Amino acid sequence: MKATRSVLLATAVCVMALPALAHTRPELATADLVAAPAGSGPCHEASAEGVAVAGLPTAIKVAGAFEQQGLTCALAGNLRPAIGHFSQAIQRFPWRPQSYANRGQAYAGLGEYEFAVLDYDDAIRLDPKQQTYRYLRAVSLSEIGRAEEAVYDLEKVLKLNDRKVVSELQRYLAVKGFDPGPIDGVYGPSTRRALIGCVSDRCFSF
């Protein structure tokens, strides 16, 4: 589906390649970050060398420094080192959902979708209202053949109470050769079955 007519655009869900500390908690504001771990540069392997942690406030700041370095690596296309940095950040402050989502996106970028799903599970557990995490999980679930679970996440993200959105989805499914039932803007069992089939055949445009 072309971007201008995408069902997903109707959701108003903005999914970025790697959000630059989106949904940042006050404790992780960039201005409060400690110096990045030893060996900082455009991108380097994660290392705790030279990083001293004394109490929760310092641990939070060190986690933020690791996450920032992970984003630097990820945006440069160095996903394996990025995963190391995000893992270090999670180890020091495991209650920030965006850290898991960032690592999940890095795993997905490497095609390691099973690991990505596990990270999105944790992100959703920590912030169940953040629909972007469900969208990202749906993408990875579809890649490993778990179409029905992917559709469950899509149902949380898509505005299926909006008849215009559902009608557009039904037309798209019909064009792709799946029978959504009547094009009536009502999301019912036939439309759901068609969507599962479409996701299974990788025909759904995420």
Automatic annotation (TrEMBL):
TPR repeats: 97-130
Domain Peptidoglycan binding-like: 166-195
A Pfam family matched in the record: TPR_1
Signal peptide from the UniProt entry: 1-22
Entry's Gene Ontology BP terms: receptor-mediated virion attachment to host cell
Cellular component GO terms held in the UniProt record: cell outer membrane
Keywords per UniProt: Repeat, Signal, TPR repeat
SMART domains xref list: TPR
Listed InterPro entries: Peptidoglycan-bd-like, PGBD-like_sf, TPR-like_helical_dom_sf, TPR_rpt, Ycf3
Protein's recorded name: Putative peptidoglycan binding domain-containing protein
